[in-house]
Design goal:
680 residues; seven-stranded mixed sheet; alpha+beta; six-stranded antiparallel sheet; 30% helix
Length: 680
Amino acid sequence: MANTADFIACGDFVFYDNFDSANLAKVELVKVPETSEKDGNETESKSCKSSSSDDATDYEFNLWTKHDCHGTQFQNNNRTWFYFGVKACAPGVYVKFNIVNLNRQVKMFSQGMCPVFKVVPGHMHWERIRERPTYSLDQKGNDFTLSFLYLTPENSKAITYFAFTYPFSYTDLQNYLRRIDIKIAKRTITCADDVYYHRECAIKSLEGRRMDIITISSFHNISTEREDRLNNMFPEQNEERPFKFWNKKVIFISARVHPGETPSSFVFNGFLNFLLNRDDQIATTLRRLYVFKLIPMLNPDGVARGHYRMDTRGVNLNRVYLNPSIKDHPTIYAARNLIRYYHYTYELPKEDEVSNAGFENGENTLTIIDSSCTIANIVRDTTTRLLQQVTLMTLDEKHKDQPEIFQECALLKTNLEDMPQGMLFRIVLFNMIPKILLFIYTTLCEGGGEGLCNNTEENDNSVELKSDKNTYTAVGIGQLPKEDSGLYLYIDLHGHASKKGVFMYGNYFDNPEDTITCMLLPKLMSINNPNFHFTSCNFTERNMYIIDKRDGMSREGSGRVAVYKLTGLIHSYTLECNYNSGRLVNTIPARMRDGVHKTISPIFVPPKYTPAVFEAVGAALGPSILDLTSNNPNSRLPNSQYRSLRGVKSFLKLAYVNNVSTPFSKSLHKRNAQNSGLDD
């Protein structure tokens, strides 16, 4: 993990800061052990000393963490995140670390928050330190010092890593996605319910890192048309765009716009793993009904640099969604362009059009794969036809004035003609299906279908869509009617430093019906996850426009609010997870097919949050989304106190009418407004 060629040496200890997400600035030795010899009994008794006393420590160090944008003209006062490694000079000695320049986080650490550690080699999994840390403030109340102890490992070559909370770096993400890519590539497509998975680079960050976007669906209603390559985006020319789907709306989920909010990555991973499950009926239904667009890391530069809140130019990227610049905020520019693209171009055909074999678009006809026909059969028929054409060609014809797809088919047949026919088919299937489908589409639609161009200036976020029939422009805050949007749901995932639990922020609506609709998903989450706090959710108008005290920017530019203003989407949310714990737990009813007697055993004490807890929150999004439309094949609602979706809606209406929804307005109080103002 750490490169031993680059380190900070202090007091015979070696400190590492040269890896992804690390941010140690300086180390100072405060205390060294006495040099007098100790007899065996004294050494043996050391392990029995109380580590709460200063006498228990053999070494003490002061450490300074880097500010966001440390050492640049954009340096700012965000300094909550820390992450470093240390190799001790001796085994079995007590060391005290004082991180002396953190932001004031009294509330979080007074509630039992602990840093995490792991040892390489040895203790490879992250866990919270075993003894509660202490903290203090300077006389001015500005700098916050966090202190904790650790016992050095017996292996003198081992490196112990410490972090503010469970890390998930840019490198971790890329390794994680590569493992998924490999696993998906090994799967055999057997039916239309199989997982359609596509990963691509939407744009490069300011420092050249990938902002990945992942498309997940099933093969139901897949077309042979690929999504448009939007101008100034999709820089990897060897990566093709995913196929379009008809009669499916888009669910858009993003994470890590604030680099230090690592719980959002674990929630994201939990949802992603759930969607990729081929054996879960709920996941299968989700893929059949929707197309999922997932951005795992919106601020990869900030993550890699070890920032807590900002990008590399000191900008809070979750405040620029209304007018992002491709030059200054490329990842948000790309995310916003994609959201608008799916809003305007994923309009659903009418029911009578869906039943037809083709979809009319100007003079072109697009093929739609019917759900009753397996993808394997379609590919087999297409591959057989193409190979027959290759067989009838002469050798010269195969390489002269022929489309690339025929040349590659010919090459495969020439090199592999001695192989069994089944083996040849599998090679063609896995290596050539994208090009085969693309060839079919380009053959049917000469000149392409709908194109997309952007002739505006860099900071003009208008997009011109051209087709054979008309030309129209989507600019700024111009909403299509909500029912016509190609988007169904938007969620941006975050972490929260002060407010306990897991909860959501939604937008404010004058219309009571829209308010109930917005509250519905968070309420369903509280039925599907024991750690979700519905009473901590906030749907107030003030929470849409509150000004951050530190940077003076309004939440109007956040993803949640901007998406609503751009699209009229009611289901637009921020999901927040406290780093440490919650204040309550929900009793979760059994699933419909499990029976009423299999209710999950209640937990009366909120647990310390771990990656597994966060991943379970992500997994709970799946059934909650299906409960919104009563499409959950194994819902918990029938065994809940509400009995049905109608019962949940009646509860929310009663709460709204009787003004019982007062908890939703807690952030109006001064203290809570200040605490929550830094985490959306």
